[in-house]
Specification:
By secondary structure, the protein is of the alpha/beta class. The chain is built from 14 helices and 12 strands. Helix content is about 40%, strand content about 15%. The structure holds iron/sulfur cluster (2 copies). One iron/sulfur cluster (SF4) binds next to helix 13 and helix 14.
């Protein structure tokens, strides 16, 4: 049963905010064409048809919209997209939608649309007002926390399923507990944390927001302590990275490619139909082609796509005898760096080692409890 997973950028790298650490703005600036424009209805229509065909008679389709800021494609684009998918989905395959948004441009119409169509809405929020407003600013340089909070509450009132995405900067890393509790206060119980990226080609660690391995290791340990305490006391908050580690300890598949040790879980489709194998490699060298000329199915079998998968399966040499391999798999290749002596390793390796040493017994405790709970759960 093929699962076709698309990460669609309907407004390319266009954005109504100017987050100082934005990785996609940097990535777009590193390719021949930074913005590939807003997706036309015709490109969307072709993409939907090709994706449903690739899913076959019994597969499924997962579409995640991202940017830049995807809502800049406009609500009519999204309405059309959902209607067109319904029209073309003659096999009635399961289709799910997600959107990652800064939430700045949302209004009641958006909130109702997203809730009605069961979009999983990821809202970017960096903890509390002080931390968020330091880097997440609008086009005039003003902090956005108050407006995002208001729009998040509007989404919740409309009944949309929300999760929060927090970018871990150097400053955030010092305040893991404070951020965790600030995010919990919104009432959203699904949280994701992703390390902030340094610009492509720069030696890591040189920007005010740069997250060093030491910062990240500290952050993960403090965050885990707070999360574990909640689990122990029956106040569960879903935290994607830690849940992935628990699932791996239980012998279950994790939810992200970065924790699975395999690239190629999804395809990125840019505004003009250009296709890339990963959001972190949406660069000229990794462009697979354009779905307006070559179908998604064919592009996924192209030499570059196969090469990308092959590279993603390799591990840095130092991972070979590491005792944390079965939980870590070397992490995401975007974090693999080569030092002056030609030795490749994960930039955050020291953070992972510190975290696993700190958390392993408790990760195993949760895994054992979850396994027992599943065993005892009634089956119908
Ligand atoms: S490079 Fe990282 S994010 Fe990209 S597909 Fe591989 S594991 Fe996933
Ligand atoms: S902790 Fe470091 S050495 Fe071990 S698997 Fe992860 S990245 Fe590789």
């Amino acid at each position: 049963m093929p699962i076709v997973n698309l990460l669609v950028k309907p407004a390319s790298s266009l954005c109504n905010m100017r987050c100082r650490y934005c990785f996609y703005e940097d990535e777009a600036a590193n390719r021949t064409q930074a913005s590939m424009g807003v997706m036309t209805r015709d490109t969307a229509r072709r993409m939907i048809g090709q994706a449903l065909e690739a899913a076959g008679p019994d597969g499924s389709l997962q579409v995640a919209f991202q940017g830049g800021e995807p809502t800049l494609a406009g609500l009519p684009f999204f309405r059309d997209f959902v209607a067109e998918t319904r029209r073309q989905n003659t096999n009635r395959l399961p289709v799910s939608y997600a959107i990652q948004t800064n939430a700045l441009a949302l209004d009641e119409d958006w909130a109702v649309f997203l809730a009605r169509n069961h979009f999983l809405v990821g809202v970017s929020l960096d903890g509390d007002k002080t931390l968020h407003d330091e880097f997440r600013v609008d086009a005039s340089g003003k902090g956005t926390w108050t407006r995002i909070q208001r729009n998040l509450a509007m989404l919740q009132r409309a009944g949309a399923d929300c999760n929060l995405l927090c970018v871990v900067t150097k400053r955030c890393a010092k305040s893991a507990g404070r951020i965790y509790h600030a995010l919990q206060k919104t009432g959203v119980r699904y949280l994701q944390f992703i390390p902030c990226l340094d610009p492509i080609g720069e030696v890591r660690g040189g920007r005010p927001w740069s997250l060093t391995p030491d910062d990240y290791g500290h952050f993960l340990c403090v965050l885990f302590d707070a999360w574990y305490r909640d689990w122990k006391e029956g106040r569960y908050t879903s935290l994607r990275l830690f849940e992935d580690y628990v699932h791996l300890a239980m012998g279950l598949p994790p939810s992200t490619c970065a924790t699975s040790g395999r690239c190629g879980a999804y395809s990125v489709v840019e505004g003009d139909g250009s296709v890339y194998p990963c959001d972190f490699f949406a660069l000229d060298d990794w462009k697979l082609g354009n779905l307006r000329q070559t179908s998604l199915a064919e592009l996924s079998k192209s030499e570059r796509a196969v090469d990308f998968l092959r590279r993603g399966l390799q591990r840095p040499a130092e991972c070979g005898d590491c005792r944390w391999q079965r939980l870590c798999f070397g992490g995401c290749p975007r974090d693999w760096v080569t030092d002056g002596a030609g030795k490749t390793g994960n930039y955050y390796c020291a953070a992972f080692r510190r975290f696993f040493a700190h958390a392993e017994p408790r990760l195993m405790e949760i895994a054992a409890a979850e396994t027992a709970a599943r065993r005892n759960a009634p089956t119908f």
